[in-house]
Design brief:
Elements lengths: L11 H11 L4 H5 L3 H14 L1 H12 L14
Helix pairs in contact: 1-4, 3-4
């Protein structure tokens, strides 16, 4: 019996690059469809960088998820 694991349509490379270069503005969250938290990151400058750093680590480790709660992993 084989299981199908759903993975996000959003690409790993664009997500990690957006977070690295524009993480303080929450652009990576807008990209994956998380508009509400993207606006919060924009207003707080990524939680003064801490929130952006945590997101970057989560993306690299493969535990960051998109709006549909699907993991964004390299394929």
């Amino acid at each position: 019996m084989t299981e199908t694991i759903a993975i996000s349509e959003k690409g790993f490379v664009p997500t990690v690059l957006l977070c690295f270069f524009l993480g303080a503005f929450g652009i990576h969250r807008f990209y994956v469809g998380k508009i509400g938290t993207g606006i919060l990151m924009l207003l707080t400058l990524g939680g003064l960088g801490i929130w952006a750093l945590i997101d970057f680590i989560m993306i690299v480790c493969g535990s960051f998820k998109d709006k549909q709660e699907l993991p964004i992993k390299p394929s």
